[in-house]
Amino acid sequence: MLPGIGVFGTGSVAKVLVPFLREKGFSVEAIWGTTLQEAEATAKELKIPFFTNKIDDVLLKKNVNLVFIVCAPNLHAQISVKALGIGKHVVCDKPAGLCQAEALKMVRAAQYYPTLISIINHSLRFLPAFSYMRKSIVDGYLGNPEELTLIDVRVQMGSLLGNTYNWLCDDTMGGGTLTLVGSHVIDLVTFLTGQKVVKVHGVLRTFVEETAKVNGIRKITAPDFCTFQLQMDKGLLVTATLNNHLPGPCFNQEIYVCSKKGYLVVRGGDLHGKLHKVNKNIPEEENKRAHDKEDVIYVDVEDLSCTSSIIPKPYIKGLCKMISALKEAFLPVKEQMDWIKEPVRAAATFEDGQRVQATMEALRKSSEDGCWTTVQLLTEPPDPNPALSAAVRRTAISLQ
């Protein structure tokens, strides 16, 4: 029994997501949009029977048991916590809320309802190239996994902005290359190596403050360039450069994982590797030629049934694989709300989402201060009014 699906959001992700869900046998029962007109137009386009602009209308539908939250990040925490409280499974798009405090609310809700699925859409985890890369690292292709030295990430792509001013243009609302692309990179590094980020150093810049379509009194504050270094807890160094300055809808991604023995690299959706081999019995010239070629570990030849000019192909393919994993989690059981954990074990949890959020907060602080910053994970919700709390404490002390 596959659960009925409710989708929150009417953007490009929703338009790629719904056909994939149907292809895998899921029934999409309802869609939510910020305005009724948006919701109605998308429902007609995607042939979804029910549309609304009220969050509760989707959550309270009896035939909706799994919700996909692919709307603006300011609603991610609110909808996730509410959905889990009502007893619905949740797949939330990155990032986990707008700040760590929101991510912590999501983590607490997921811990309170452990029998429900609660995962973040860090879809690169499900891309076969990265699954094989992780397996190669664990199997010792580069030697001891704890002795990795460097991960070098380069992502070059077109603009993330649309034709109108919306949350994508605003850094505080979850727009920009750090949140939309960098969050995947930060999560992926931990997924591949099992190591956690300890300290960070970053530079964020917004070079394009207005476009032909977005101009006038409002300025774009979302960063379109970012470079950062991450120091991991077992000595590994990560360096990443994310650039949104290429013309048109293009996407180039290279991720190198290096050790003293050699390297593994994912380019697009293909995985290659190369080891430093030295054979003392043949001349140096021949030895160099013999090892000029990389080992081909995985080549991506699978075509997609649904593509997008806005969302890069690796993210779409990862999303498709994640939906397949969700199908495998629900299919063997007879009850609609039952599921098995194994197929979605690789997925990013809400705790992973909070850790990514903590890293991004440290990177923003580092960019402002110009120095290395320690990643601090929240364990308690921050005090909404510290000045008032201090005054209350002083009053209590004086009364004693």
UniProtKB/TrEMBL annotation:
Gene3D superfamilies found in the cross-reference section: Dihydrodipicolinate Reductase, domain 2 (3.30.360.10), NAD(P)-binding Rossmann-like Domain (3.40.50.720)
Pfam families reported for this sequence: GFO_IDH_MocA (PF01408), GFO_IDH_MocA_C3 (PF22725)
Ranges for domain GFO/IDH/MocA-like oxidoreductase: 131-264
Gfo/Idh/MocA-like oxidoreductase N-terminal domain boundaries: 5-111
Molecular function, one GO term: nucleotide binding
Keywords: Oxidoreductase
Family: Belongs to the Gfo/Idh/MocA family.
Protein name (database record): Glucose-fructose oxidoreductase domain-containing protein 1
Annotated source species: Papilio xuthus
